[in-house]
Amino acid sequence: MNATSVLLSILNAGQPVAEHRPWLRAVVTSEIWNALIQGLAEGTWTLLGLWGEAGIVHLAAYEAPINPPGASRLPPLPKEGWGDFIVASLPCPDGQFPSVARLHPPAQRLERTIADLVGLRPVGAADPRPWLDHGRWPVVHPLGTVTPRTDPQPPYLFLTAEGEGLHQIPVGPVHAGIIEPGHFRFTANGEAVVRLEQRLGYVHKGIESLLIGATLERAARLIGRVSGDSTVAYALAFARAVEAATETVVPTRAHWLRALMAELERLANHCGDIGAICNDAAFALMLAHCAVLREQVLRASAACFGHRLLMDCIIPGGVVADLPTDGVKILRALVADIRRQFPPLIDLYDNTASLQDRTVNTGFVKPSLIKQFGCGGTIGRAGGRAFDARRDPGYPPYDQLEFETPVLTESDVNARIWLRIHEVEQSLALIDQILERLPSGAVRGELNRLDQPGEGMALVEGFRGDILVWLRLAADGTVARCHPRDPSWFQWPLLEAAIENNIVADFPLCNKSFNGSYSGHDL
Amino acid sequence: MALITDYLVQGSQMLLLLLLAPLLTGLIRAFKAQLLRRRGPSPLQPYRDLSKLLRKEVILADSASWLFRVAPYLIFAAIWVAASLVPTFASGLLFNWTADLIAIVALLGTARFFLALAGLDVGTSFGGIGSSREMMIASLAEPAMLMMVFTLSLLAGTTELSAVARFMLTADVGLRVSLGLALIALMMVAIAENARVPVDNPATHLELTMVHEAMVLEYSGRHLALIELAASLKLLLYLSLLGCIFAPWGMATAGDGFWAYLLGVAIYLGKLALGGLLLAVFETSIAKMRVFRVDQFMGAALMLGLLGTLLLFVSRSL
Predict the structure, then answer these.
(1) How much is the average pLDDT of A253-281?
(2) What residues of chain B lie within 8 A of the CB of A507, using their CB?
(3) Which one of A49, B33, B57, B161 is CB 3.0 to 4.6 Å from B38, fit for a cystine?
(4) Domain limits for position B87
(5) pTM of the prediction?
(6) Mainly resides where (chain B) (predicted)?
(7) How many CB atoms lie under 10 A from the CB of residue A350?
(8) How many domains are contained in chain B?
C-alpha cells in the first residue's frame, strides 16, 4: 500500500484505531469527514459502505489505483498498484452527523437506514423519509437506544411527477411470481416510464441485531443466511474479517478450497441468471438448458461439500471439511460437462434475433453513474467499471491464479448477459487451475487471540459484486458489532436510472439483468 | 327426421369443441415441456384446473360492478358460438349456413370488447395496462383478419366457410400468391389473438409484461374457469379455421353418415395435433417481442391481407 495516497494522509490526521485490521480505521473530526464527503462527491474516492452504531457513524471508502491489476483496457486512474481502503469513524455525541448524501447521492439510502436503525440524524440530507423502517416494528432504533414505538409512522410519500396523462402503476411488494418482495412505483405516460421509485425493506430480519453478542459459530451461520444465493461469499467475507481481527493465519489448502467453493457459487448463479434473463423475454428454452447446468453444479457441490448451495461450509479459521477422495474427479467431470454444453447455448443466445432485439440497448445505465455509485459486479463491469475484489484488494489464492476480469462498456441488458457468459468461462478456468494445483495440508486452524477485542474488515467478490463485512469482536470472543454490506446497495438505485426512457413492459428484463438481492439489502 | 339428425350432428360438434379445447391447450403445453426437456404436466391438466376452479369460491373486488360478473358468461358464449360456426370435421352443418366469416370476426370482437371492459372495471393498474395493450393489438388484428376474409371471399365468391372449404378443394384454386399472403396474415392474427409468444406470453408471471393475463388477473373461481375455457376455445377456433380454409382435406359433408363423420373427426384431431405441435415449436424458438413492436407485427399482417386482396384485382390468377 502506498502511504502517500491522499486518502491515507487525510485519514492519518485523525486518530487511528490500533486494533482495526487489515486497513486503516481512524476516528475523525467533522472537518476530515467533510473533506471525505467532498472527495467522494468529486469522484476521487468511492463509497464502500456507511453504517452506524450508538453514537458513531462509520464510512468505508476506496481510492482506486491507476492501472488496476489485470485490467489493461481501462481509463487511467490516479494512482498505481493496489487501491487504498479506509474506514473513517465520526463520533456523534449529539445524535447527528453531517450528511454524506447531501453531496454524494449514493449514500442516501444508507443514511436513511442509519436513521432508522441507530437513530443518528444526517444533517442537511435532502430525503428525511425512513427507509427500512416501515412502522411495523414494535421498537424504534433497534441498533441504537432501543425505545418502544409510540406514535404510528406517517404514511410514506412517494416522489411525484407532474405532467399531462401521467399515471402511477404500483407493483408489489407481493408479485405474481414467486420472488422476493419489493415495491416499485412507476409513474408512466402510457407505456413510457417517467419515473421509477423503489421501496425496499419488506424482508428486514434484524440480522445486525441478532449478530450482536452472537458467538462466532452462530454469527457465521447468520451471515451465511443474509442472502442465500451468495452464502459462500458472505461466509468467506465474514471468515476473512474474523481472521483479520484475530490475526489468524489460515492453512493454504483452506484458501484454495474456499476459492473453489466461491467459483462454484459464481458458476451456479451466473448459469441460472443467464437463463432467467432470457426467460423474462419469454425465451424459455434458454432457461431450461441453463437450469440443467446450474443443477449439475449444485449436485456436484452437494457431492463434494455436502450442501447444494455450500451453506455453512466456510467458517472462521478454514473450511468445515476437506474434499472427499473422489471430489477432484467429480469437479473435473463437471467442468468438462459444462465446457461441452455451454458454447451451444451461447450460440443460441447470440443467434436468436428476437432475443437480441429485446436485450440490446435495453436498460442502459450511464457509466458515469456506475462510477459514481461504485457499482460492482456484473452491472459495474458491464458498464466499464473494472473493480473486482479478487484483484483489489485481492486475497489468496487469487494472487497465484491466472484469470481475467472481463469488462464491457455497452452497459445494457445484452452486455450484462455477455459479462456473465465471460465470467462463467473464467470461473471454469479458475476451477481447473485450483483442481490442478490444490496444495495439501490441513483445512482448518485455530483462531488466535480470541480473548482480546479486535476489529476486522474484508471485501470479497460474490457473484453479485463486492461484499463488505466489518466487525468488532468483544474480549469474550463474541461479536460486538458486525455490519455486512451487500453489493445491491449500490445497484438497486441504478435500476431506477436504467428504466428511464424504457417502457413498462421492459422492466422485468432490466430487473432480472440486475438481479439485486432483496434479502441482502433489507438485512 | 333429417332436421333432428342435423341438430344432433351440430350439437355433437359444439360439444366436441367444448371437450377438445382444454385438451388442445394441455397438449401444446405438453409439447412445449418436451421441447424444453421438462417432464411437464399431463395434457389432461387443464381439465383438472377447470374442475378445480369451478368448485372454488368466487372472490370479487369491492369495486367490481355487475359488468365484471356478467362479462365471463358473455365472453364464453360469444366465443363458443363463433367456434361452432367453423366447420371442423364436417362442412355444411346446420349452423354453417346461418353465419359467415364476418360474423365470426364480429363475435370475437364482441368477446374482446367485454374482456377489455372487465379488465378496466375493477380499476387496478394491471387491468388497465392489459386492456389498453389488448385494444392496441386488436385495432390492427381485426382489420388484418377482415382483409384476409375479403381475399377469400373474392376468390370463392362467398364469405360462408363451408362453401370456402369446398371451393378450396376444387382443382381450379391452384397455387395462388394471394392465398399464401392470406395464410400468413391469418397465422399472425391467430398468434396475436390467442396471446401466444411472441406477442404475449401465456405462461408468464411478470405482471408488467402481460396482455391477456393482465386483464383477467382479478378473476377467480367459476368466472376464471369460463375465461380460461373461452381462451382455449378461441385457440381451437383459430386452428380449426386454418384447417378448414387451408387444409380442408378429409372433411365430411353434411349427411354423409356416421362412419364418414367418424373419419372426419379422426382427421380433424390429427390436424389439431399437428397445428399444436407446430405452434409449440414456433413458440419455443422465438423470444417475445417488445410491446411497441407488436404494432409493426400486426401492421405487417394487415399489409399482407391488403396485398392479397389487391393482387386479386390486378390479376385473377394470382
Answers:
(1) 94
(2) 208
(3) B33
(4) 2-314
(5) 0.90
(6) membrane
(7) 14
(8) 1
